[in-house]
Amino acid sequence: MEPFKIHILGCGSALPTLKHYASAQVVELRGKFFMVDCGEGTQMQLRRSHVGFTKIQAIFISHLHGDHCFGLPGLISTFGMLGRTAPLHVYGPAALGPMLDAVLRQFCTGLEFTVEFHAVATTRQQVVYDDRSLTVESVPLRHRIACCGYLFREKPTLPHIRRDMIDCFEIPLSQINNIKNGAGWTTPDGLFIPHDRLTLPAAPPRAYAYCSDTRYMPTLHEAVEGVNLLYHESTYDAAHADRARLYHHSTSVQAATVARDAHVGRLLLGHFSARYDDETLLLREAQAVFPNTLLANEGLVVSV
């Protein structure tokens, strides 16, 4: 099974602390690398993560609060200094487009690559990126400004060939792709071997959902149903539910409720308020609702 990993670069909230960086992640899937949000300090965290700058092929921005996008201009500038030539695709709310244009004109002239901006509608769930390996969907969220999460879905793979059956019936290599795509095999003496005897089922496709800043949404579980890993902001503990509602954020209990109702594999908490020196309280509260919960932390790499 090919790697599907989440590299946590930053999991703090808006107020800087000495413990956490602002929001940023890298999604690694089948040799491709995608950045999700790009707060201040992202470049330093990329260095520490050993994810090469030149490997990033697209960046997905959830919303235009600084702790999720202030690192983007500097990162683009660095791409230029590193001699990048491949296009950089940036996805985000429509309002990001003019801001990005202004930054490029002021600070990033002479780039040897193009920055291609794709406006994402934050009010409906839709596929915003599609290639042979995966799709990325937008997930509408409820924050103080236009905001969406992103859902990374691996595409199904072909079944696995049983080497013992290939050897047993002396099937030529030229027929392997045909068998993977559903064909059987007839031996020289006329014996037909059906496809399902020659193959093993492919591993189920995996999915990862990134739910950035959002007020608790009772219907959000429908959009992320059954994903292997859910990242959900958990800015506050349950005692600060009123504050979460006021600022359009979620508590750890609310994040766990979404995970439970969506029947996800695991829940990853993040976007912690600066008030917490230790997020163990948030973890305990979430695990009381959804036991398979873990805390994000800079440098953490989670396999999906």
TrEMBL record:
Binding site for Zn(2+) 1: 63, 65, 143, 213
Active site positions, chain numbering: 67
Catalytic function, reaction form: Endonucleolytic cleavage of RNA, removing extra 3' nucleotides from tRNA precursor, generating 3' termini of tRNAs. A 3'-hydroxy group is left at the tRNA terminus and a 5'-phosphoryl group is left at the trailer molecule
Cofactor binding note of this UniProt entry: Binds 2 Zn(2+) ions.
Gene Ontology MF, one: 3'-tRNA processing endoribonuclease activity
Pfam families per UniProt: Anti-Pycsar_Apyc1
Cofactor: Zn(2+)
Top-level taxon: Bacteria
Binding residues for Zn(2+) 2: 67-68, 213, 271
Stated family: Belongs to the RNase Z family.
Subunit record text: Homodimer.
Protein known as: Ribonuclease Z
Biological source species: Hallella seregens ATCC 51272
Origin organism lineage: Bacteria, Pseudomonadati, Bacteroidota, Bacteroidia, Bacteroidales
Gene: rnz
